[in-house]
Design a protein that fits this description.
The protein is mainly beta. It has one helix and seven strands; from the N terminus they run αβββββββ. The protein has a seven-stranded antiparallel β-sheet, with no helix packed on it.
Length: 85
């Protein structure tokens, strides 16, 4: 039996819909909301101050998993995971 995993990047619209709840790792807040944070290219800004890099984003797999983004701290390179709610 062959199992194929499909992953895709989220569009900017999908990324900015809803809010993202903290999962684990690097923490910039309990929630990332794009009403509060601004995304320019791959950098997350809060009040014009760069806070983190968006290093990956994953679509839900057939509705069984949550959408997920991974961010990286600009200073320590620590990564953190957030899930869309």
């Amino acid at each position: 039996m062959t199992l194929i995993f499909l992953t895709s990047c989220l569009s900017n619209k999908e990324l900015k819909e809803g809010w993202w709840k903290y999962g684990d790792g690097y923490h910039i807040g309990d929630v990332i909301s794009f009403e509060r944070y601004n995304l320019v290219n791959d950098t997350l800004y809060l009040k014009d101050i760069p806070k983190a890099l968006l290093i990956s984003q994953e679509e839900s797999v057939f509705g069984f998993t949550s959408r997920k983004i991974v961010i990286r701290d600009l200073k320590s390179n620590e990564t953190g995971t957030y899930y869309q709610k």
